[in-house]
Amino acid sequence: MFKYGARLYRRFRDLSVVGRCRSSSLSSAPERALQYSIGQKIHGFTVTEVTSVPDLFLTAVKLEHDATGAKYLHAARDDANNLFSVQLRTTPMDSTGVPHILEHTVLCGSERFPCRDPFFKMLNRSLSTFMNAFTASDYTMYPFSTQNPKDFQNLLSVYLDAVFFPCLREQDFWQEGWRLENADTQDPSSPLVFKGVVFNEMKGAFSNNEQLYAQHLQNLLLPDHTYAHVSGGEPLAITDLTWQQLKEFHQTHYHPSNARFFTYGDLPLEQHLQQIEEEALSRFQKIQPDTAVPAQSPWNTPREASVCCGPDAMAPDPAKQHTLTVSYLLGDITDVFESFVLNLLSSLMVTGPNSPFYRTLVEPGIGSDFSSLVGYDGSTRNASFSVGLQGISVDDADRVKRIIDETVDDIIVKGFEEERIEALLHRIEIQMKHQSSSFGLALASYIASSWNHDGDPVELLRISQNVERFRQEVSNNPAFLQDKVRHYFKDNTHKLTLSMSPDEGYVSKLADAESVKLAQKVEQLSEEDRKEIHQKGLELLSMQTAVQDASCLPALQVSDIQPTIKPTHLEMGTAGGVPVQYCEQPTNGMVYFRAFSHLNTLPEDLKPYVPLFCSVITKMGCGDMDYKQQSQQMELRTGGMSISPQILPDHTHMDTYEQGILLTSSCLERNVEEMFHLWSDIFNSPHFDDIERFRVLVMSSAQELANGISYSGHVMAMTHAARTLSPAAELQETFHGMEQVKFMKQMAETPDLPSVLRKLARIRRHLLNPDNIRCAVNAAPDKMAAVAVQTERFMGNVAGTRKQRKSVRPHLIQRPLDPSADPSSSSATRTLISEPHFQACQMKTHYQLPFPVNFASECVRTVPFTHPDYASLCVLSRLMSSKFLHGEIRERGGAYGGGARMGGGGLYSFYSYRDPNSTATLAAFRKGVDWAREGTFTQQDIDESKLSVFSQVDAPVAPSDKGLSVFLSGLSDSMKQEHRERLFAVTHTQLVDAAGRYLGVGQSVCASAILGPENAELSKDPSWIRK
Ligand SMILES: [Zn+2]
Q1: Of 245, 437, 453, 863, which alpha carbon lies 20 to 30 A from 459's?
Q2: CA angle at residue 366 from 361 to 371, to 5 degrees?
Q3: Start-end of H helices in 417-526
Q4: Per residue in 92-121, pLDDT tens?
Q5: Positions marked catalytic
């Protein structure tokens, strides 16, 4: 797994703060942690600082390990979703991808846990809420979280052993890094090719133009040290890395003296320290790691550079595919206040339609949108700021550069409106109060970069202190921000202008370069070497296929899983005749409002426009506000307002579903009235006459969709394959699949936008009828009554003006919202569409895209949620993924990922991600079915699959989202409990039976799709449709 530093942690938005806060009691975790004293010795560590951070409801305890100098930070907080992370400073001086390959190989087996791939195996032996590893530009991080104390200890043992005592076998290096191998491993006469997980992963990563651009930008802007290199690995440079170099890098970088430990949650700190000391640190002595990154020395003159990329088949305007960005080197990220100010300043400059750069660059429609890297980047030792456009014509390059310079000048003269600054500070306040379900992880990510360069992580957490100081600075000097702009932008000569242009031959040039490199390596081989390579390939294959003994690994038992769910208490009421679900939660001063409106009266021809409607309606201006004023008000008064299209499958019938749109918003309690006022204006009087504004939004939506394919190609492939299998899946393709990408490309190209806008105006008239709508409110108990009054007023206002409309759907079914609720106490219903005449049909589609890798999928129509076999299919999907498909598709096939999943709509889907194979992967899916039918798996395998299913079922839910599954899908606690009991009861016989009955050839209707490059095999096969 590999994440780009440059893409992480760029904005305040990334600090989605605050886990679940239990009501404060005397022995709360933060209070207990305040008892530690500076200088106190605990299990080989010394406490160096204890700080209360009331903003985030936590106590921070800093420690240092006496013998090794390892740094440690504990954040004590009343959150059961405990997190551990260890972070190593990894600063490579070449592009062989050594830190990235190391990240993969340490997870392939260790001293105490020598079995193959303990990391993936633990996914099934644990109830973890998160497990992963990341390679950033200058550190590698291994985090996990879990709500179960025993699980925490188990995972900690496995993580510590993996990081500090990995086996790093030569075979692990071949598998995860790179190797030469016969194309057909069995056949010694087949040509030699490069194989390896990271090798393929990075080829896939750089097929994404956004990632390619981000990488070039970082390499060129910070050329003096580690940032000049590709930490993830440049595909061809990867093939220069040796096993010996990998082991050396581990010795010098994965040492406690070069490590930072972070723990978070309500578990006792002493226990963590003891385990870390006993199982890892006690075996080390201090070293002086040579891993520090020096500050970049600034340039005397600005620089320019240009790079090439592959053409984008989905680009809204093929003649406009150039990207141009100007980047500025900023200060050291360990200066917490300066970074805070620059981050804020960057947001003021580029975020939202009121920002100066939006006005001068995006609004005139020179390009399709801002380039993907716009704004502040604090992921490197020196921060940077970038601004520019994507989707421009090459002739506009000079114009863009000129505008950027002029805009900087303009900001220095005019400064920023006070209200915009207030809006931004309001957003920070909301982010501190909003409670996410993965607060520990957000925190670990938030502090990682600065701490990595010895910045003070605790200072970083004291956000309101920085806000206060900022206010002080601005009141002392009203030109405070303008002075910063002059210093960092106007007078800054460390400035890079980077342009990227598509090259028709780009993909083939890459392939040629690979052939040349391959030929060089092959040329040097003797007959003897070739024999050895064939032999090693066979050995690797046999190791990969050998039955594995994972008994050395710790595991939770099925009996460790909670037998019953904790019920969520909900109250039903009405407001203006509309049903409202109230859910009282400790929301920390926030109010969350949602409204669902079905679309059953909407004419068929308007359907493809629904996603576009949703993405623009909150951004066009409304009431007496233009879109800029509207955006400002939304920032000042709310934590965000958005609308999304919804397709909600039925739990009892495959051909029944509910469709509509969902309004989502949040605000501080004091702003509820303003939030509802905004919603009223948005629906009663949106500005559907501003064509220029609309054009900008359409271009940017189209661009965003096109850019997303290479990240979520597996989802796109599954959605495309499934479209002929059920009515809900067909609509899914229309709303969220390749059809929508294509549709938006047409919209971006159409000269007749006014007629599109008229269609959106028609859609609006079908929404928010009192008959069509239901609402949900999550708020603190003491505020609920006041919020209910506001909700009543809002519904009266919005819904009162609507006309009755007739449904265009012939078959509608009414269902109670909560099937288990007493019908006399609640009249809330859902209106589902039934398509009794729907005929599922088999279809195989090859969707051709200019990628070097494939996304393959096969979907099978099975049974809905309440069917007795549904639970077996859920367990089966996990079983096949971890015990068969992972080995076939990832380890032997060289794909980045692959598996099977059971979806709520009753579709069983196989998929692969960034896959060098296509039809071979489809064959592997089929082999998986045969394997399941043979039933050679054990009870242990079944139990592990159940743990894996339950870790998803029991994933923590934030207070803002409690009760949502009833509200949206009518999935009540008692239905969940019934499903739970069925999951516990799944047997070996049921699994074999389900595999045969549903997945066997000819048993059910199934369909396949492959997204990927031209494919000779598929074009020869007439059963495949080409798109
Ligand atoms: Zn990776």
Answers
A1: 437
A2: 60
A3: 418-433, 439-452, 457-461, 463-476, 480-485, 506-523
A4: 999 999 999 999 999 999 999 998 888 888
A5: 103
